[in-house]
Each structure stands twice: as structure tokens, then as C-alpha cells.
């Protein structure tokens, strides 16, 4: 089940530490999230979730009897429920966290580290936001439903009649974009696995320059980049200040910094990191990266907005559209959360609405027209 807009979110807290369970319960109940049950290990969590049918589960990773990874897999198999992983804020835990997403978890949040008291404002804000976001996830979209065809979008309605089909990548491969064309991708909750599929489908010979803004904490984006590098044909790295990106390269906006495109010279984009305040409550913000690219990119430009809650990316997609770029939004049926894509579509700045496995082809198609 999932919480409706007018009901209280019901959560189950799973952690082998009684202190951490109490802490999480307190933070959630202070924000009017009802903690209906707790569990001290993965095996107990399966029984508790089956009994109470919560809207969302917070899941620790390292636990006795059964760890969080195995518990996620069992819950998603037996009683599918949105699961938010609680990860230690350490690089060595990033790979395990991504494996949890592979097994069906919808998102993750970092636990407090070091001095717990000083981190409480951050932990409470992030935990509550992620809980609400996770509870809104459409699990059917993340578990391989049948995919519709992409459609053209209009400013007056979500979508019009189908204009193309996406049965293979042959069409995109027949006519490749100009080398050095630029693709900016923005995603939030439910995004990491979709981003991976989009990038894995990029033909190396297209020679795109790609920037990805995935809402993710500091310390995880470097491992995310390494993971993507191993799974696609392009060179993928976490962006650094002053970085220059050329054809066949992908840069991931680092968690905790905004990423700006400052120039497009000799076929290479120059990138700059910014420590400005969060925008829309997030850092990095999709809007800032897309907007900066729309101002300076000389080559063909496309923007893609994927699953996520909120409105980050709407202004950026609008800027790309106004600059003559092509824009693609993930469709409702395949979005874990149809928030950011829906708002971009409603703003009238989206050229095509496509299921996740058609996004790459539609972006390539747009870059060739």
C-alpha cells in the first residue's frame, strides 16, 4: 500500500541498534510519521512487514540473522513495500547501498556519524523528506511493467497521440548526432538504475558530452560514477572543479556541490563547482546545471528529466527548450515518482514523453533534428 496525500505515512523501522531505532522513531514521530512497528534484524523485518503492511520501511544494512540486503530482496519478493536504506556515511558502504537499490530498495539516506547531536537537523530533514518520497513510490514502475510508446508533449496536456515507437536502437544508430552534442540528465528518487540504463544504451560512436545530476549525498557520487563507468561505453567520472569534458565522456555532479557549465570551447565543456546554498532543498540542483548549459553550449543540446519528487529541473528544462534544445521527460508508467517529469510536462517545456527504455533513443533522435 502507499500513503495518500491526506493520510499519515505509516513506517516500520528496522535496525539492530535499539538506540538507532529509538532515534529514528523519535525523528519520524516528531514529523507526524507514524511508526507502527520495529524490527531488530532482517528476518524479523520480513514478518513485521507482512503483518503490518506499512507504507514504507527504513532498513539498516548490517544486522545479525539476516542483513538488510537479503531482507530487501525477500520483502520485495513476498510483500513489495517501498524501502529506504539507512547507510553509514562512508565510501566503503556505497557499493553495498547501490546493491540494495539493485535488489529493490527505492532510495537511501545516510545515518548520523560522529557527534549525533550536531547532525540532528540534517538527519531529521533528510530522513523525513526521503521517507515521504519513498512512501510515494509506484513500485509497479520499478518492477518492469510493460512499456508504452513515447509521445509528443504539449503545453495544454500531459501528452498527445503517439508519434514514434521504440522497439530498437536501430533508428538512433542510423543517424547519429553531430559529435560533441551535449546531453544533460537530471534524476532523483528512483533515478540511479534508470540513469544506468539510459547511459548503457548510448552508442559510443555518438560521441556525446554528457552531464548527470542525480540527487545523492556527498561520498556516494564518486562510487556511482565508478559503477556507471563499468556499465557503459563512455568514460564516466565524478566532476571536479575546472574539469573539461569532451566527446565520449560523462561527468556526474558531486553530492554536496552544484555543477555549472561555464564555457564550450574547442569541443570541450568547462565545468565549475559551486558551494552556493541548496536550491529546492537539494545540492546538486538539476536546474542550475541545465540552465548554465543552455546559456553557453554551442553544439546541439538535449535535456532529460527522469523520476523524482519536487520541481527541480523544470526551470532548467525550460531554459534548454528556449535555447532551441530538445527535451525528453520520463513517462508516468515507468517513473517511480512522476513528480519532476510531470511538472516539466505541465510547464510546456517537454518535446517528448518516453518510457525509461526509450529515453536514450528519443534524446538521440532530438539531437539529430
Can you describe what's shown?
By secondary structure, this protein is α/β, with parallel strands linked by helices. 35% of the residues lie in helices and 21% in strands. The protein has 13 helices and 16 strands. It has helices at residues 18-30, 42-52, 68-78, 94-103, 116-135, 139-142, 170-174, 191-200, 221-229, 286-296, 314-322, 340-346, 359-368; strands at residues 10-14, 34-39, 56-60, 83-87, 107-110, 151-152, 182-187, 209-214, 235-238, 244-245, 249-252, 258-265, 268-274, 301-305, 326-330, 352-354. The strands form three sheets. The protein has an eight-stranded mixed beta sheet, with helices on both faces. A five-stranded parallel beta sheet has the order 2-1-3-4-5, with helices on both faces. Helix 3 (68-78) packs parallel to helix 4 (94-103), helix 10 packs parallel to helix 11 and helix 11 crosses helix 12 (340-346). The protein is elongated and about 60 Å long.
